[in-house]
Amino acid sequence: MDLSRAHAFIQSAMATTEVERRRGQLAALSIAAVVIIVGVPLWWKTTETYRAWLPVSQIQELSDLQLQLSADVEVVFARGTVTPEQQKKIPLTQTKDDEHVIDENTSLRYRYETRYRTATIMEEDAFNQPTAAEADLSLHTLSESPCGSLVIYIIPDSSLLLPEKIDVYIGQHRTAVLRVGAQVKVGKTLEQLLIHLEPRIKQVLQVMSFSHADVTAALSDRVRLSPGSKESIADSMRTFKSSPGYEITFSLLNPDPKSHRLHWDIEGAVESYIQPLLSKLAPVANFSIDSQTLHYAMLGVNPRFGSSQNAYTLSADSLAHVINPVEARLGSNAASSNPVLNFLLYVPDANHSPLFIHNNKKQEVPSNAFHSPRWGGIMVYNVNGFYSPDATFPVDVDINMAKVMGVFLAQLRLLLGVQSSPAPSGFMVAPCNSFGLADWELDRLMWSRTVENVATATTTITSLAQLLDQIGNIVINDNIAQEVSSAVTALQLAVAELEAGNLGFALQYSKEAILASEKAFFDQSLLHLLYFPDDQKFAIYIPLFLPMCVPIFLSLLKILSEVRQRRKQKQAKRD
Questions:
Q1: Is 489 part of a structural domain of the chain?
Q2: What percent of the residues of the chain are helix, what percent strand, and what percent coil, each to the nearest 5?
Q3: Distance between CA atoms of 155 and 168, rounded to whole angstroms?
Q4: What is the bridge-based pairing of β-strands 107-118 and 175-179?
């Protein structure tokens, strides 16, 4: 009886042990299943880097964009330039494509769509004006040409509108007057007449419209310039790069207030001379102006006294050492990231007066001023009161702002990239008006700035896309994705408007593209996980998960071992 009880107790204990063993196995499997099915995906999802969707395919297509600059040209024949037979074939339209390969990777196509027509009665009356400038104003009032377009008026050789030896007059607006040469015979066909006029019309387009030199200078940081492009290199190094805004600072340097008291009407001068130019440049960029007067500000170099001139001189070699000492006193505009254009008016003290600037040929510079590329300009203003023996100090000096602003205005045009190509022989270009900028000069600047903006925005977006592709743990927030998409859309629209010849819209879209691309590229959120790679992530999480995972892993190995052992036992019983 005792043996039966002992046997029953053993059987009960073995059954209990089997139940406990299975319960432990089920617990281990349940914990492993929860960890693998729920825990690992949840941990992976909660620790993954958020990356919003980017238009990668459209960004890759940006590098293959073919820029085409298009301009509408209207050629108007005045009375006496075409015969009745020729007039019957007018109006007609011709489109000419002219390709200029900038480098092996980038090519730009230049397209001129030329329309021909005869002059209206009111335009014929404008040709009767006594001067070409008055005729240009009258033609402008009749019809204002759209931004980027040109109108070329053909007048007969007998016309007295242009002086002798002048065949082409380029006015302040988007119009030019071209005189037909006396060698053109009346019996020529219209095609022969157009062939004869084509070289002169092409020269007019090179002066008034976009040119290969402008585009090369605008893309000088991205293209390989030919060895003969010295002028383009100089222009590109002197001009400020394209920016949505600029800060202009006028500074009056008074090294010795005991020698003179300076008075300058900078507000009135800016309003009269500078503001008209900046108002006309409003489509290109935004401008802000401020002024300051700095006392005891020295140039930092000692001028040499020339006994022959009885004056002090600054040589061209010493001008490079003037900027740094002066710049330390100017202060900085930390509140704005826009480039700063500095214009300094320096009035030498009595011990160094008069002071003149000499060029490399040791000749006196007429403006007594110089400019530093992508920085600004400095003008030396001599005071006549110092030279008289009975002068009493301090001398009251009223600065001639017309003389000063004339120099600063010319320097401002150069620094902003407002440049005119040298006029060919037989051309007469109207001088600058009160705005300091002709309409066609503004168009040329807009062409180059649009191309530069498109190239800059394209480089920024493609570089950002490559960076995000190479470093997968950088967070891409929704606002960055939105800015990238906006930049890509604006670039596509800018290229389309350029091809359509809508210069104003193309410039606006290119500015939007460069603003959106730079906002996305310099967003601070891109740097949060830049130095948190995957190996550091595992180094942080392994000490946390390893103590929990080791028992589960060992339990799974034990269960797997028991399953294999049972299979072997069953196989042995069958055999």
A1: no
A2: 50, 20, 30
A3: 10
A4: unpaired
**pLDDT tens, residue by residue, 221-249:** 555 444 444 454 455 566 888 888 899 99
Among 28-37, 48-57, 493-502, top mean pLDDT goes to 493-502
Q: Which residues contact 534 (CB under 8 A, 6 or more apart)?
A: 473
pLDDT value for 105: 46
How far is residue 517's CA from residue 458's CA, in Å, rounded to a whole number? 8
For residues 388 and 297, state if they share a domain.
yes
Mean per-residue pLDDT over the chain, rounded: 81
Per-residue DSSP letters for 469-513?
Answer: HH-TTS-B-HHHHHHHHHHHHHHHHHHHHHHHT-HHHHHHHHHHH
Note whether residue 466 is domain-resident: no
Same-domain check for residues 194 and 287:
no
Of 6-10, 34-38, 302-306, minimum mean pLDDT range: 6-10
Rounded Cα–Cα distance for residues 66 and 506 (Å): 15
How many other CB atoms sit within 10 Å of the CB of residue 64? 6
CA dist 77 and 119 (Å) reads 6
* Cα–Cα distance for residue pair 184/180, rounded to 1 Å: 7
- Is residue 164 assigned to a domain? yes
What dihedral do alpha carbons 135, 138, 142, 144 form, nearest 10°? 80
Q: Please, which residues have CB within 8 angstroms of residue 437's CB and are 6 or more apart in sequence?
A: 277, 280, 281, 413, 418
Where residue 35 falls among pLDDT bands split at 50, 70, 90?
A: confident
∠ Cα 517 518 524 (to 5°): 115
One domain, residues 186 and 308: no
User: DSSP assignment, residue 41?
Assistant: H
Determine the Cα–Cα distance for residues 417 and 284; give it in Å rounded to an integer.
11
Quote the number of domains for the chain: 3
What letter does residue 358 receive in the DSSP assignment? B
pLDDT at residue 268, rounded to an integer: 93
Q: What is the pLDDT of residue 338?
A: 86
Phi, psi of 509 (to 5 degrees): -65, -35
100 closest CA partner among 206, 192, 196, 24: 206
3-class state of residue 451 by DSSP? helix
Tokens for 285, please give them.
Answer: 């960029």
Is pLDDT at 529 greater than 60 in this prediction? Answer: no
**Which residues make Cβ contacts (< 8 Å) with residue 240, sequence separation at least 6?**
246, 339, 341, 374, 415, 416, 417
CB atoms within 10 A of CB 566: 10
| Assigned token pair, 355 | 């002071």
**Residue partners of 422: CB distance under 8 A and separation at least 6:** none
Asked if residue 96 is part of any domain, the answer here is yes
- Cβ-based neighbours of 168, under 8 Å, separated by 6 or more: 176, 177, 178, 179, 200, 203, 204, 426, 427, 428
Q: Is the pLDDT of residue 387 over 70?
A: no
Give the pLDDT confidence score for residue 100 in this predicted structure: 46
